[in-house]
Amino acid sequence: MLAFTPIRIEDKDTIQSFFNQSVFRNCDFSFSNIFSWRHLYNTTFAVEGSNFLFIRFQASEEPGYLFPLGSGDLKTALEILMADAAERGDDFRLYAVTSEMFAQIEQVLPGRFSFESDRDWYEYLYSADDLIRLVGKKYQAKRNHINKFKRTYEWEYLPITREIIPDCLQLYRRWCAENGGCSDDQSLVQECLATHQAFEHFERLGLIGGALRIGGEILAYSYGQALAADTFGIHAEKSLYEIDGGFTMINQQFAEHNCGEYRYINREEDLGLVSLRQAKMSYHPAVLLEKGEVRELFAP
Fold first, then answer.
1. N or C: which end of the chain has fewer CB within 10 A?
2. Reported pTM
3. Domains along the chain?
4. For residue 103, which of 67, 56, 55 has the smallest C-alpha distance?
């Protein structure tokens, strides 16, 4: 049985060394994500020698693993995980698997597993240039929102630093109030915990953020980190709904100031929320990154 241990901030360099080897663009291989949300998923990790990183967590009520990362033999890594699941009395499951990952699994262990994709967990990848420039008829409404914002407000864009994090948290509390509070809805309770973890360890997590100051107050922010050499991941974006065009403006400004060197911007999943899906589709993703679950079809 693998010796899985809880993820701590002190484990960042070890885990990040494996993420740095990854060519995958999904948000699951982001240390800030797995650290900030570890309380929800009971996330643990193990390193086998120096060849593979294994991550185990609880999704819904069923424990499972992420796709193993490393420079060793993938077949061996999968067999190690299957043996670990069997010793724990669990069914073997891999979560957050992209179609690209499943193709690699099929290559080393053909016909052994099923892959079921889940549209609610597809990730939205956009052309960074599109989100920066918003050129063309399909972005006319976005440009209109930004132009109205600029006419309406006295504003400035500034990077998130330790000095303005208290103001960002104050904005988050106001956003919670706009959404009925963050103490009853369990999804908001968990997001609140993740938000505070991210801001508490902002620099050590390697997060990059930006904010809009409007009339002397921080009223919108966004933050994230690189997921791959060509892809930047947006982990959070908040604005008050009373600020007309606030979400559109922080989206464009963050992309302009922080994502110019990347090909793609990953804005993560919509979780099956209709309004969120509509908002994400309105920005015309370049790629819908298919993700799903892998299960073992039979034992050898």
1. C
2. 0.94
3. 5-122+291-296 (3.40.630.30), 123-268 (3.40.630.30)
4. 67
Contact between residue 237 and residue 248 where contact means Cβ atoms under 8 Å apart = no
Q: Give dist(CA 36, CA 184) in Å, integer.
A: 20
- Residue 204: per-residue pLDDT: 97
Tokens read off for 213? 């100051």
Integer CA distances (angstroms), 293 to 33, 96, 242, in order: 19, 6, 39
Question: Which pLDDT score is estimated for 181?
Answer: 85
165 three-state secondary structure? helix
Q: How far apart are the C-alpha atoms of 22 and 229, rounded to whole Å?
A: 9
Range in 71-80, 131-140, 199-208 with the lowest mean pLDDT? 71-80
* Residue environment code for 228-242, b if the CB has 16+ CB neighbours within 10 A, otherwise e: beebbbbbbbbbbee
Nearest to 258 by CA among 281, 234, 292: 234
What span, in angstroms and rounded, lies between the C-alpha atoms of 45 and 155? 43
